Amino acid sequence: xxxxxxxxxxxxxxxxxxxxxxxxxxxxxxxxxxxxxxxxxxxxxxxxxxxxxxxxxxxxxxxxxxxxxxxxxxxxxxxxxxxxxxxxxxxxxxxxxxxxxxxxxxxxxxxxxxxxxxxxxxxxxxxxxxxxxxxxxxxxxxxxxxxxxxxxxxxxxxxxxxxxxxxxxxxxxxxxxxxxxxxxxxxxxxxxxxxxxxxxxxxxxxxxxxxxxxxxxxxxxxxxxxxxxxx
Length: 231
Hints:
By secondary structure, this protein is α+β, with helices and mostly antiparallel strands. 24% of the residues lie in helices and 24% in strands.
């Protein structure tokens, strides 16, 4: 067991040629800290909702628009369009490809990047399954239908899967935020109302509500002069 904290200046307790820092943390430590702050997802910042949007490119290609993401504690940001080339279409069968953001801790990769997962040709094609493991985790940005004999991709071939929770959610804080607290309040309020229903307190409240409704209907019918005589 250990207590980790950061950032603090590290002292080299080793040598200049073989340094050992006493406050150093690993990339895995940093990812763990980030997971305490954010849920997995993409950041939606632009008013046009174009963050990591997939749009048609030239011929059999698609373009992934700029955006930011948080996947398993790692942060990624794309500041320019990324063009992804699709495999040629089949002359007799369609398929569905899936454009993904992939977090990969493999030594020869160590990054988050956009990729195309090529689907299987079929009369009833389905998009490839996402891999979601600790060391390799994918978000599905869009499903691309490749019709038989297709030579280009149009907007109608692209199904946007951003904001679908099990495919590509939006980043939210790991702790409850205002909207979540409002939802919790509504849930508790419903539980309280349900508990009061049929009880003495619940009956009293119902009577008060009924009396208030009656008064609302009676008051306009009483002449102002009569109301003044009451006081």
